[in-house]
Amino acid sequence: MAKLRDLPEWTSAAVDGDYATGPGYPTAPELAKRVGVPEGKVIEFVMNSADSKFYPGTNGAFQRHVCVYVPAQYVAGTDAPVIVSADAYGMRYNLPTILDNMIYDRRLPVMVAVMIANGGSERSMEYDTVSDKYVQFVEEEVLPRAEKEANVKLSKNPEARMTLGGSSGGAVALTMAWFRPDLYHRVLTYSGTFVNLRNGPEAPLGAYEYIEHLFPNTPKKPLRLWIQVSENDNGAKTASEDRRNWVTANSRLAKILKDKGYPYQFVYTRGAGHTESKVIVNTLPQALEYVWQGYSPSVR
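Above: the chain's sequence. Below: its structure in token form.
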């Protein structure tokens, strides 16, 4: 593992590199509602898998819940930057309030968040498969419905689009941007499952292919990444050769990002486990600020 610097309470968004933090994880102040800060709204809807050409339900039809956060400052008809999160990430970690506060403080652009629930028993198939199938599903089926239900217009500028997820949701967050950098340039992951969990003809080592072959053997893509792993994460005591050690996988990915010249932050959280809530509510505002650093509506 690379030498790690302590992550300060507020990290300058310009500072790339490898950091460590913990074992104390106070909840970030951005998660608390503030008097005088306009509150956005959250629109919820349900998608029936029977209507999907991508995931109709291998074990029978199911319902997928989607939540769309729309900030109070959004002007109808304008293109909005967007966060797309797997596992409906954000609703559990007060993302709407974080965005209310950070948009109001001009630390983030006026943006929408589309938080998509997983397919239940089909979650691993959706998230751990290294292909463009899930991102196609999001682009063709989820986002058009989100625009209609929430009366918003989502930007197509990849600089204005971010993916978010934890564990296997972190793997698919990277997969979405990897296969469609024309649509997503910003990636934020917690305890990303970049291990050999679900292999196939396109990825014999599953998401470990990002470490073994894809990043090392592919010209640099226009991605900006914030990745995290915990000291006691999944497989922390597993031999690295098995490619099932989350700590090793994320650490190796960070080294590759550094060697390839990607803008990235890697955060190692001491005394914590896999996608622990205390870590997320402590670091998510800083992570968002880092990932969105450099955004301008006119830059592509």
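The helical segments are 95-104, 123-128, 133-150, 168-179, 209-217, 246-260, 277-291.
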